[in-house]
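Note to self: keep these together.
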Amino acid sequence: MIQRKGTQSISYGLSKIYLFLQPIKPKSTFQFGHACRDYSNNTQSDLTTLRRAIGRGNINHARFAYDNLLKQSQQKMDRDVVRKLLLLARHGKHSQDIEFIQNVIRDMKGPLQILPQHFEYHALIFAYGLQQEPEKAYNVLNLMRSDGLEPNIYTYNTLLACYKRANNLDKAESLLDEMKFKKIEPDTVTYNTILHLMLRMDKFDRLFDLYERMDTDTNMAKPDMYTYSTVLDAAAKSGNQEIGNPICDKLLDTNKRKDIDLNIMNNILRFKANTAMHQVLELYYSLADQFPHIRADRVTYNILLDACLKNGNPAKAYMIYGDMKRAALKPDVITYGTLIDAESKVGNLKDALQLFQDMCHELIEPNDRIMTSLVNIAASKKATLKDLDTLVGLMKQFRRSLNLDTRAYNSLMYGLALHGRSKQVQHIYDDVFRDSSCQPDVATFTNLVLAYINDDYLDDAMEIYYTLREHHKKCRDEKTKVKIPIRLDTTFYSTLIASLSRNIDNTKQQYTTDDEYDSSPRLVTAMAIFNDMRPLQIQPTKHTYTAMLHACGQYRDRYVLNQIYQQIKVDLYLDPDIGIYNSLMDAYSRTEDGDTVLEIWQTISKPASTSYVIPDQISVSIVFDSCGHNGLSARAPLIWAWLKRTGFRLNTNNYNSYIECLCRERGRSGWDMAHQLINQEMSIPQKPLHGKPVMDEKTVNTLISFAKKKGFGYNEIEALEEWKLKLRL
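Structure:
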């Protein structure tokens, strides 16, 4: 590229033309005869050059040719050439372009001897507006008046467009009042400019009010197709059905269909997508027959894709995506962003990454929104380590060109933390948050500690935790100023405790412990964190207690479980629900304390007048499982009788738990009761009956499994197997 001082860069080919147009400087050997010029021919040549430069849209060449013409003693420039020159110059983006227009208008009054009219001043107003100088554009009105030209409707419309470019609605409305004061009747273009500015500024109520006055006031200019398109766009963005539906009905009337252009059709589709997806699809599939003059473009397909995905129809979305490709329309960043958003909602990182790579293959640069949407999928539990590693690689590749927020990085850290990738999470924290490019929040530190817990580096996790705990205390102290205010909350504690409840050491023998010194290090850590909550004035929630109870059950730690149970009893701020009682029963069942399970069951199965908590179907399954596994099968029939007597709605899982409990009794009497229960009270999958739960594969497998364990005869077991085949389970 060649750069000349005071001009924009031009290609080598154009630079040669530019140099060719420069005046020739005489050399020492220049002969006198060559200096004799035919002024008439040169003037004609410069005028031709000017016309060509205007035709090519090259303002620099046009300005050079104009200056050459102006130097000639004979002028042959007419108003038509001047106007074409100003039409070109008004689109200039530099201050010298405005100066050039001013010079041309001055030259018209002088050497060109062409009296300036409204058109020339409108070009100057337009140029000021393009360069975001609406006040200078307004001052042109005084210049016009000094030359004996009164501003007209076109003047004011041009000036209104300047205020629209500057997003200055107040000045635009003030100018509208000035027009009325000066008896200049606003036309449809005037109101359309105001309406579009209101649309830009999201002033929907004022927009709809102005439109309704246009539509009903006989003294105002009437709406045209551009008006309808603008108002419909506003109705779609604001969800105003009362305004949008009548406009759609009016536009889709048979007599007006020929006037609908692609932009209006896109706005109709965008509006309808919020409430009437079936109409959107009907319009799309009827375009060829009912609107043959309209050909769907990329915007159309993007609207359709977004509508399908927001309405939960991804299959239709990908069919339309196929239509888009068959129409030879290349997807753009909006297309890919919409599809990646859809995959983000269902947590499908693998397919989202494929879309992202397809986009890069098409040389489409990703934006912050797309990368944020992609990174957010990292928090999905469906995300695999392989896909997460791919995502981390993409983050490194595009990080410098994109500006992601704290939430996006938190999602990535959480996804890696779930898999125990402590080194990667620590690297992200060091790379992103230590240099303050993003400010960390409590979720950031939650994910950092979580990563070390899931990687089983408990000492490292607790070291970070203790630092955070002390920082939390400083944040609570009003006298202490901290750079980053981080306050720990119940979500922080519940997340860490829930993670610690996972027994990742499956090599150890599982046994129940009543000794505080024999507790699992992970459970001890969970208890230490839990015990910090009240001193820090952080109230444990039901979820926190549930997480601790689950941890006790996983580690079969009756000692810690009893401590938690006591805290539940004395916690004045806790209102235990059936979820907590179910977690209690499950934990005690896992610690082989069936008697306590039955005590809790008695508490929640009291009459409604004495208990505010009633058992649910999960409670029933837990109590029967506990009776069966903890040698209390004899108590199960009494509970079953109570359930039947009170009309409790039992499901298949409840029956399966009770059947297994009966089968665990010694001998075959319990097994026979279970078999009889299945035949009398359960229905088969092929003929489900109302009020009778449908037996499933587990129901039959339980019977067969215990029949084998109890040493039933070959023929009886064979009969059970044949029965299973008949049931097609």
